[in-house]
Amino acid sequence: MLLNEIIEKRERSAGAESMTNNNLLGLLLESNLNEENNYSKSNTMTMEDVIEECKLFYFAGQATTADLLIWTMVVLSMHPSWQKRAREEVLQVIGDKKPSFDNLSHLKIMTLILYEVLRLYPPTPLIRRTRKITKLGEFTLPANLEIMIPLLFVHRDTEQLGDDANEFNPERFSEGISRSYKDQISYFPFGWGHRICIGQNFALLEAKMALTNILQHFSFELSPSYTHAPSTIITLQPERGAQIILHKL
Ligand code: HEM
């Protein structure tokens, strides 16, 4: 209902100066209008399509990145030496300035930390549906079967990663992702193939920006009331919350 109203208002102002394309909805409506004017109406998105696209972006982009940030705060609270290393790097590369696109790309330790958090706490499982009877290894799957690939377990495969697969060790990615696995890559927090996440670079940038701001201004630790209970409630969330105590620096 809310989205319906927003879209109708945007459509009414179509063509007027006020119609901006500086966000997803504006871009979708502008492309729809171009398609309709230059080609045919049959190729345009319906109101329902536009609403579904907005919902997908909101859901796919918001909860997942928030989960990544929450788990990073939890993990850096559990491993203060890595929190210290991350802060030292931020202060060395960015100082107390506002982070920019350019200097965020120089945060190597932070990148390793985020990769490792995405390995241990991947926000989403992968879901696939078989279109026809499909042979998968020794299994024959019927058509129209929904399969969930629990990345949480795939990412902790001791055969591929070694005995410390369940431990937090960002250093394992220091030679690149493919080097950290024995013979096949079993790390894909953003999916794989043609449905791979289109927002992955944006998500990492967003997470780096938020984390930089936090590390510049606060140190943090887990509250005694924190209970470690990762649980898949659509995305991987701390079931009992993430109570974190911040100390102003
Ligand atoms: C840490 C953050 C994120 C994680 C872990 C994540 C993970 C994923 C995964 C696993 C998929 C499914 C890939 C598949 O089925 O093979 C996906 C798809 C998608 N993601 Fe992300 N994502 C994140 C952030 C974002 C952001 C910030 C956006 C948008 C700004 C976004 C937009 C999308 C979209 C639109 C799809 C569907 C792509 C398609 O079906 O073609 N994601 N993401």
Automatic annotation (TrEMBL):
Which cofactor(s) are needed, names only? heme
Give yes or no: UniProt keyword Isomerase. no
Give any Gene Ontology cellular component.
membrane
Output the Gene Ontology terms for molecular function.
heme binding; iron ion binding; monooxygenase activity; oxidoreductase activity, acting on paired donors, with incorporation or reduction of molecular oxygen
Q: Which residues cross the membrane?
A: none
Instruction: Return the similarity comment.
Output: Belongs to the cytochrome P450 family.
Entry protein name: Cytochrome P450
Q: Which organism is it from?
A: Kingdonia uniflora
